[in-house]
TrEMBL record:
CDD domains: Thioesterase_II_repeat1 (cd03444). The keyword Transcription regulation does not apply. Residues 126-255 form the Acyl-CoA thioesterase-like C-terminal domain. It comes from the Bacteria. One of its GO terms (molecular function) is metal ion binding. Keywords: Calcium, Metal-binding. This is Acyl-CoA thioesterase.
Amino acid sequence: MTEAFPALVRQDDARYAITVGPDLAVGPPGHAYLFGGASMALALDVAAETVGRPVVQGSLQFVSFTPLGSVLDLTVEVLQSGRTLAQARVAGTVDGRLVFHSGISLGMREGFSARQWALAPPVPQPDNCPPCTTLPAQDDNARYLEGIEVREAGGPEVPSGRTRLWLRRKDGAPLDAASLAMFADFLPIALGRATGCSGGGNSLDNSLRITGAAAPGWCLCDMIIPSSASGFAQGQVTLWDQSGRLLATGAQSLLLKG
């Protein structure tokens, strides 16, 4: 087990397994599966656990869905480990079948103070924002979204293609790499709003670059869908704590729903 995933079982130095339960599942009625952001979060978590260093960056490609109730096996391969930086590959399989693969960079360099040039968008604080009431309908056994408090941070002045949400985990978990990976995967919701199609589309890949972590609390998820073409869309996200500190940036490619 790890702090982020108590149900995760470590089988040896570089192999882990977890049964996909309802708390990590999303999907429409009749089709519950592992939340894509949880796939990324698990990959980051097992890489950090194996290497013993904080995550700097991760990218992940989905090969297939991971069904509710299946056992997800995660294997970490450390590609190189130097004084400052380590790089790892994580493969996720179900019954020997690859469902995703990920490349992750980990490390920390001493002697460099944190600096931030970007500014958080000027939005109302969470207490002044209404709850979100337009999340996609979920299967009865897909309960990940039930564990997240979601509030609308935008307003009528928000341009087309952009969605801003305040997100907070109801279990009081910190805004660590796992939480940020999951929050970054709200991009399909932004795509759904941009296109008018509930659920938006399916993520083909996830990428996340982490600049910090924060104590439990609200996270501002600022998402934009710049364009779509030939049935595919692009999405970008920035994640901020309530004080306006940048925590992470991310991006996805998405397959539009027909």
